[in-house]
Amino acid sequence: KHPLNIIKMKKMKTDGVPLSMLTAYDYPSALLAEEAGVDLILVGDSLGNVVLGYDTTLPVTIDDMVYHTRSVKRGAQNTFIIADMPFMTYHGSVDETLRGVRRLMQEGQAHAVKMEGGLEICAAVSAVVAAGVPVLGHIGLTPQSVNMIGGYRIQGKDAKDAQRLIDEAKALEAAGAFGIVLELVTEEVAAAISKAVSIPTIGIGAGRYCDGQVLVFHDVLRYASPYREKRFVKTYADVGSLIREGISSYVREVKDRSFPAEEHVFNADETVLESLYGG
Ligand code: KIV
Ligand code: NA
């Protein structure tokens, strides 16, 4: 099976076939995501929250992203992989931006990168696309700018905000982005953006009319996550409880000596008993 590519993704939008995207951060999560048939894997800098235990995505580095992207690649050889450019790695010189992108593509072996922002990053998007690397945009709630936004707020609530988001989406399309993530955008505005551009929109907390959906691995599976319940998340399995129960059974059996049992041990032949304890 071949991974999807950006030409097919655009055709899926035209044909009305939704794109399914899930984050993954390491070999086992990538293996499971690929086996389950996701269209796209995002190595999100949300790994800062759900894997590394930070409060925000700001501390995540290019080194972190390279390390995790390489692990994901080993687990999902046949899935299109997008790696997040971390905080402040695409706002300086084009040289610096391209250096980070090159590391994600060469060392991480991603197929594409994702960048947060609107008009202010369009020059960086064009430079990366000109280097032959597909770029996924990301507008609406952009967690790397949480300190400017003043919290994790819903975007696109009024007419002015709606127009700003539509303008950003059009600018990203013109800059060469192959798609756009819409995060925490009102359903009406996400629908309007999806109509206004010919590249696929992939929503998270952006309603029913996006061209695809993305969720965070740990949210979908209730795998230990530092967050409270989120309205836009649907939990499809409670893996966190299964893991906790499994580990506590292991601890209990070690303590009461029911593990290891006879079937788990290796035995020597009789000569050993003779030599150890005498005949
Ligand atoms: O880092 C991430 O997981 C993301 C998605 C929420 C789109 O950027
Ligand atoms: Na991200």
What would you note in describing this structure?
- By secondary structure, the protein is α/β, with parallel strands linked by helices.
- It has two domains: 232 residues, Phosphoenolpyruvate-binding domains (TIM Barrel); 36 residues, no CATH class.
- Helix 5 links the parallel strand 3 and strand 4.
- Helix 2 packs across helix 4 and helix 8 runs parallel beside helix 9.
- The protein starts with 5 loop residues before the first helix and ends with a helix.
- The mean pLDDT is 96.
- It binds 3-methyl-2-oxobutanoic acid and sodium ion.
- 3-methyl-2-oxobutanoic acid (KIV) binds next to strand 6.
Summarize the structure.
With 279 residues, the protein is α/β, with parallel strands linked by helices. The protein folds into 2 domains: 6-237, Alpha-Beta Barrel (TIM Barrel), CATH 3.20.20.60; 242-277, no CATH class.
Quote the distance from N terminus to C terminus. Answer: 64 Å
CATH fold naming of the largest domain:
TIM Barrel
Secondary structure class reads alpha/beta
CATH class of the largest domain: Alpha Beta
> How many DSSP H or I helices?
12
**Overall CATH architecture of the largest domain:** Alpha-Beta Barrel
Structurally, the number of domains stands at 2
* Overall mean confidence score, pLDDT: 96
Radius of gyration: 23 Å
Largest sheet: 8 strands, parallel, barrel
Oligomer category = single chain
Report strand order across the widest sheet. Answer: 1-2-3-4-5-6-7-8
Q: What small molecules does this complex bind?
A: 3-methyl-2-oxobutanoic acid, sodium ion
What fraction of residues sit in β-strands? 5-15%
State the fourth-level CATH superfamily of the largest domain: Phosphoenolpyruvate-binding domains
